Amino acid sequence: MAAPGENLRINGARLWESIHEIAKIGPGVAGGSNRQTLTDEDAEGRALFQSWCEAAGLEMGVDAMGTMFATRAGTDPEALPVFIGSHLDTQPTGGRYDGVLGVLGGLEVVRTLNDLGIKTKHPIIVANWTNEEGTRFAPAMVASGVFAGAIDQDWAYGRTDAKGLRFGDELERIGWKGPEAVGARKIHAYFELHIEQGPILEAEGKDIGVVTHGQGTYWTQLTLTGVAAHTGSTPMPMRKNAGLGMARILQLVDEIAWSHAPDAVGAAGHIDVFPNSRNVIPGKVVFTVDFRSPDLAVLQDMEKRLYEGAQKIADEMGLGLELENVNRFDPVTFDAGCVKAIRDAAERLGYSHRDIISGAGHDACWINRVAPTAMVMCPCVGGLSHNEAEEISQEWAAAGADVLFHAVIETAGIVE
Amino acid sequence: MAAPGENLRINGARLWESIHEIAKIGPGVAGGSNRQTLTDEDAEGRALFQSWCEAAGLEMGVDAMGTMFATRAGTDPEALPVFIGSHLDTQPTGGRYDGVLGVLGGLEVVRTLNDLGIKTKHPIIVANWTNEEGTRFAPAMVASGVFAGAIDQDWAYGRTDAKGLRFGDELERIGWKGPEAVGARKIHAYFELHIEQGPILEAEGKDIGVVTHGQGTYWTQLTLTGVAAHTGSTPMPMRKNAGLGMARILQLVDEIAWSHAPDAVGAAGHIDVFPNSRNVIPGKVVFTVDFRSPDLAVLQDMEKRLYEGAQKIADEMGLGLELENVNRFDPVTFDAGCVKAIRDAAERLGYSHRDIISGAGHDACWINRVAPTAMVMCPCVGGLSHNEAEEISQEWAAAGADVLFHAVIETAGIVE
Questions:
Q1: B8: CB partners within 8 A, 6+ apart
Q2: Cβ within 8 Å, pair B248-A243
Q3: Chain A residue closest to B380 (CA)?
Q4: Global model pTM greater than 0.80
Q5: Could you tell me how far CA A176 lies from the centroid of its own chain?
Q6: ipTM exceeding 0.85?
Q7: In this complex, do A277 and B91 lie within 8 Å of one another by their Cβ atoms?
Q8: What is the pLDDT of residues A81-108, one digit of tens each?
């Protein structure tokens, strides 16, 4: 057959079981997962995934950033592999599906091919990218960024967590620094399945999001410096309150984001106050502003207005201000051919679908620089993610993996 | 003689040396001290103070809240003791003088009496109150509060620090839970020497502040609850951003404080954001608002406007709000006789002085409820305190201790 048949489906129950099996590693406190990158829990999750890959007959390779590549051979020794990737690391208060669905969805594609005895012309590789979340070590999507040549590997190794531990040291400590040169593998096409992490698909009752673009993300870390002083005995006119400066800048961030409604968004998720004592006026606040938009000009305008507005607020209040770009990711347009493969698969399988822009960053956004790439999304309840209450249904997961399966085998070529 | 002679002075060099000796215990990172209550460093500081008291021939008693009472006997077995007290615990980023000057100033009074062979009718007691700062265990001034009958001892024991450790357990662990019932000691008069922790005395070139009143302090802990969600994929209208709610309430706090200029002040020194990750909209923020005023009606108005305004902001933003009083300390008027003894001593010694309102809370504010009480203040550089850069001069410390010495011996009665 030239195209895969409509009757071919992945095993939704098996996929669901694997998702909930790995969720037991690094369990959260409220039903989710806390399996942050390069922790002991990350290592344990990797080992479980490795054992599943071995059971499925895949060959594991690991690169110097710790990314895992599990290969199912193709029939044509000259054909480049089709990749399916995402990540197994989580937020500190992560859900069970963010990232995990994409990696185990890839594994389910391979398991289904094995069940059906289907051979493909191109090899298929399931990838687990290291440190997609970026919450322990900034920036996010660092291993795929190094793979795509956008981030320097030594710089990535030197990133430190809140305790001052280095990324490179922690990667060695958990035993997942591999021998492969990062970015050496060539890619025929790259597919990633992910939960939407937003409310649109569920609200519109769509099974599948066909991701055509990725929002750009600009992260600015601000350090406001005032004077730590006694809250009681320092008259109001003599204060240099870095906490109040942070409050004014947060309002500015909100105003800037709304001014570019409806697509742009902005907020600060990370705020550290020093010395953080009830009777000391904050002498320093370090916080990170996250702006996103699918439009590069809008992103640049938002960043410019933040820089100017924050400086004006700092000057008015007598505060010191340092601004640092900790992540600047331009908007992404995915490959038309890969996008079409996903849209066609959804259509063929009878799933309702719509085109969608990804609000979050994904490893696919980096890989898009070096290979034809696209993404499949499935809904999540209430649009909630980066929250232990993140939830999807088994049917949504199965529909997403079915579409992934069909897009992959169409691209990899079934050998009759 | 009926009144002490003008020629009697404390030993300013010895006082200065002791202050800098104890500062070596729990050294800060920037020249100050980090000797938080009921830590190992607190225990080490207590032991050093005890050894100095023993060397000065004082008898040490310890109560069940860990407060240390070092007694120099008087000649009249019926006469109640004159107390000199303050605290040896510090902020996490504390200076060398906040509290320490008052305790070691008291020790210096006793050392000087010993040098000069002066006996007093009333005993003199130097007290080190446990947990004045309240930064590890809220509220501040807890041991003097229990002593004055304003705070319940078992409730104080049950207070927990950020790690969940209980005050009572930590007091036992460091070995300073004493046998004395708290508040059992009767007091003839209580004096406390303290740095101003504000900029007024230095700005006006005054040697001495004669403290007539203490500002009242109301602390409200606010817990704002939104929904933790992905910063990228959650459209602006669907967010429940607890961090933005906190920012708006901080601006309200500032407006409320300015509306009662010049005496009232307000700020939040403590702000914890959850989960505090760069790409998660804050689902929860816990922060504490500190309002102060010497006028009870003003304090009550500020608290009322905070409660109403914060609720309005939370309602508008769809956030949950919990409000908890973690400290409510009404304004204090010190004893006219003790205040006069301090003012007369400054006058007699030729030190420039002015009456002043204490902006900070002090143990003296609680003890004022159960005994005639007043305070002496000396300037500090730039008004800085609760900051490792806190600084005073040896001359300022000596002048403050001289005035303390004269007020104490006039009150305790020199035996000729």
A1: B112, B116, B405, B406, B409
A2: no
A3: A233
A4: no
A5: 20
A6: no
A7: yes
A8: 999 999 999 999 899 999 999 999 999 9
